[in-house]
Design goal:
This protein has helices at residues 23-34, 41-49, 53-60, 62-79, 94-100, 112-119, 132-150, 162-176; strands at 13-16, 38-40, 83-85, 105-109, 153-156. It is an alpha/beta fold. It contains eight helices and five strands. A five-stranded parallel beta sheet has the order 2-3-1-4-5, sandwiched between helices.
């Protein structure tokens, strides 16, 4: 499916969406179903930095985190052959948006009711730490046009299990390659 030459690989799919959309859960299940590796950009940043995203935000600021994120997304898009999950805000960077062009990008769309059940709006999410519900709605209103613009497939996750969401994605990927 991907060229085995180093530096010329492409992800099978890139999963994007807001906090609580299920990017990691769906991405892992999608990778398993397709028999490919799963790569989470946020986890890779945390591993490389030896600290949590939240700590990076607090210690270094959002701009420093976004620089790390932009670099890891760019690397992932040319070196990862499986399913890549991209942090919710990454697509807002113009260079990242540009880098996503030509990739299979799956936008996991979610309503606040489902997102709040999944993430509980705890303090580990720096951009949602003050008035989390209002912050999430405002964030989604800002980000939705970009999610829609970068995606090649939009999947509504409302009331659906991760397996049902993955079924929809797999069917769409198979139809695209038919």
């Amino acid at each position: 499916m991907n060229d085995p030459t180093p530096g010329t690989t492409r992800p099978v799919a890139v999963v994007v969406g807001p906090p609580g959309a299920g990017k990691t859960t769906v991405g892992q299940e999608l990778a398993h179903r397709l028999g490919v590796a799963f790569h989470d950009v946020d986890s890779a940043i945390e591993a490389a930095q030896g600290r949590s995203i939240s700590d990076i935000f607090v210690d270094d600021g959002e701009a420093a985190f976004r620089d790390l994120e932009r670099a890891e997304v760019a690397r992932s898009l040319v070196e990862e052959a499986g399913v890549v999950s991209v942090g919710g805000g990454a697509v807002m960077d113009p260079l990242t948006e540009q880098a996503l062009a030509g990739h299979v990008v799956v936008f996991l769309d979610v309503a606040i009711a489902d997102a709040s059940k999944r993430i509980g709006f705890d303090r580990s999410r720096p951009l949602l730490s003050v008035n989390p519900r209002a912050s999430w709605v405002a964030m989604m209103n800002t980000r939705r046009p970009t999610y829609e613009r970068v995606s090649t497939l939009r999947v509504d996750t409302a009331g659906r299990t991760p397996t049902e969401v993955v079924d929809t994605i797999v069917t769409a990927l198979e139809a695209a390659h038919a």
